[in-house]
Design brief:
167 residues; 10 strands
């Protein structure tokens, strides 16, 4: 149901590609392709692959339930870069909703696109938070909130009003 691997000791929540190093990765890919056609050496292949890894770098969160610590990581070339924090610093798990709309106007036709998303956050204090997962379906987000809250033994807060819920 979710792209999270739940074990007895560790919980790994993978968010997917972040495009954090989009321009650096795109530049490395372009330089790799250019050097492959002009120089035709192995360095260009390595540069191309390095650019692809930077372009599609993945982020996520690893939670060690047994040792009560959490690490929000950024995955570059199969290395998880991030720092561990104590899970005791976090007070609650929150479900928040966001709605985005965009309207396109043509000469005689107007169309609107509405996108609702639901995010699960691990809250340390009012200013610091870690986004664990984003969903498009409210039921999946609520189920994940309950699951992660019980697993971590943290307070579960749902900030959506009855009008925003899509049941």
């Amino acid at each position: 149901m979710f792209k999270s691997k739940i074990a007895k000791r560790k919980l790994n929540v993978i968010n997917g590609p972040t495009f954090r190093f989009f321009y650096i990765g795109l530049t490395a890919i372009a330089c790799g392709i250019y050097s492959y056609f002009n120089l035709n050496n192995y360095l260009s292949t390595l540069l191309f692959l390095f650019g692809v890894f930077l372009f599609l770098s993945i982020n996520g969160t690893v939670i060690d339930v047994e040792q009560r610590k959490v690490k929000h990581y950024f995955n570059i070339l199969f290395f998880r870069v991030g720092t561990w924090k104590s899970l005791d610093q976090f007070s609650r798990v929150e479900l928040r909703g966001q709605s985005n709309s965009q309207t396109f106007h043509y000469r005689s036709v107007s169309s609107s696109i509405n996108v609702k998303s639901y995010s699960i956050f691990l809250i340390q204090n009012q200013k610091e938070k870690i986004e664990l997962k984003e969903f498009r379906d409210y039921k999946q987000a609520k189920a994940f909130l309950l699951e992660i809250g019980e697993k971590l033994d943290l307070k579960q807060v749902n900030y959506l009003s009855r009008l925003d819920r899509v049941d």
